[in-house]
Amino acid sequence: MAVVSEAKLADVKKLVNEAAASGANKTQKLVQDGAAPAHATMEKTMEQATKATEGMMKAAEQAAEFSRGNAEAMAKAAQVYMTGVQDLSKQTLAMMQGLSEHAIASAKALAAVKSLKEATEIQTSYARTAMEKALAESTKLQEASLKLAEATFAPLSARMTLAVETMSKPIAA
Q1: What is the pLDDT of residues 92-124, one digit of tens each?
Q2: Nearest to 133 by CA among 168, 169, 84, 97
Q3: 96 and 172 in contact (C-beta within 8 Å)?
Q4: Of 29, 106, 109, 137, which one is least surrounded by beta carbons within 10 A?
Q5: Considering the domain boundaries, does residue 86 fall inside one?
Q6: What whole-number distance in Å separates Cα of residue 155 and Cα of residue 161?
Q7: Which residues lie closer than 8 Å to 99 by C-beta, 6 or more apart?
Q8: Is residue 173 domain-resident?
Q9: Angle between the 116-168 and 2-111 helix axes, to the nearest 10 degrees?
Q10: Which parts of the sequence belong to the Phasin domain (predicted)?
Q11: pTM, full prediction
């Protein structure tokens, strides 16, 4: 019996080895067959991730550039405003000096009057001239202020126009 058992045992071992070899071949073929699509899927995923990352980097660079432009526009607007305010201050000071000089001249003329009629004429002339000068100078200051406002907001308006144009463009794929 030992001989039959050994023969059967040999047959069983042979069958097991054949099955193992066959299973290993099938497993190896299954792994090889699945590896190619998995590799292709991995490459496609990496390519898509790279494109997405490049797109995000480009968007970040564009946002930084746009912000830099906004800061430059704000600085330009502030510079124009400060220069304009200095000019307006100089114009206002000149107007006040002119009115003061006119008042001093009228006061000197009033000091030298010899009659009430002459004083009234000088005072009326002074009042009319002072009012005309003040009105003319105020109009000049108002026009200068409007020009200053336009010049101050010009860089900001340009940035706003650019922002609207940028936001209305479709996003590049």
Answers
A1: 999 999 989 999 999 999 888 899 999 999 899
A2: 97
A3: no
A4: 29
A5: yes
A6: 10
A7: 130, 133, 134, 137
A8: no
A9: 170
A10: 61-160
A11: 0.60
